[in-house]
Amino acid sequence: MRFVQLSGGRFDGRLTDIRLDRMQLLRDVANASLAKQGTAPSGTMVFNLPMDAHGEGRFAGRALTFPTCIVSGSELSELCSPRRLDLVCIAVERRWLLEMAENQGRASAARRLRKIQPFLYGDTARMWPLKTAVSDIFADLPVLARALDQAASRLAIENEIADLLLDILSEDEERLCIDTPQKRIAEKARAYVMEHAELQPSVDDICRHVGVSRRKLQNCFHDTFGFSPTHFLRTMRLDRVRRDLRAAGRGPVSIGDIAARWGFWHWSRFANEYRALFGELPSETLRRPRD
């Protein structure tokens, strides 16, 4: 999983990973808006189930009002999460779930499992039993850990969750078009920036590379990510400073040199922007224990 913090304030988050035989449940709780992207094991379907959310996010180049369940294959398009999100990602072996759907005569669910394309499902009455079951799984992790030592318990959890997922897939969905012209331009621009990050390309450099006007690039970024190219460049550079500070050795480290490496020459302005985004000064990041 790769992510970049987009909203200001000290980041607080946690990941809880539960692995079964044909299913994985990953709970991701964060108090900041993040641009996140990742992959699940090949051959899986991923159900992104929001347990709690505050604010609007963006997915596949469109605004996304939570709580909304995103269902996709193992390659997940970038999600710009709301400012606060408690999300459980359920990755299930697609062939196993498809066989279950076919055996139970769930034609609609089976049809969607064969297509492997993103769908959206709203916060319907059928979503609540799934949320309740998932909450119960994460409610007492020490007890769960002992239960998972038994194959019968693992199978019981998988079957219960799979039945509830098939209930969701049996409902009407909203299909997502994840490849629009605006999104292709924005993705190409962002890839160029990430590949040439140390050269610190400007907005004009990006426009020349992509072959669009500044206004066109601005519109494509807003439509796809919900923020401007300028905001993206500044956030990316601040994120690179933070990563370098976190990766610094135990010896003497010059915060000024690291900041200057990423184009921040005005110390007080840099420190203020850094604290506004991450909720702490660069010196505090440097003093934090290394992961």
TrEMBL record:
Protein name: Transcriptional regulator, AraC family (EutR-like)
UniProt keyword Nucleotidyltransferase present: no
UniProt keyword list: DNA-binding, Plasmid, Transcription, Transcription regulation
Claim: Transcription is one of the keywords in the record: yes
Superkingdom of origin organism: Bacteria
Domain HTH araC/xylS-type: from-to ranges: 187-288
Organism: Azospirillum lipoferum (strain 4B)
Alphabetized GO MF terms: DNA-binding transcription factor activity; sequence-specific DNA binding
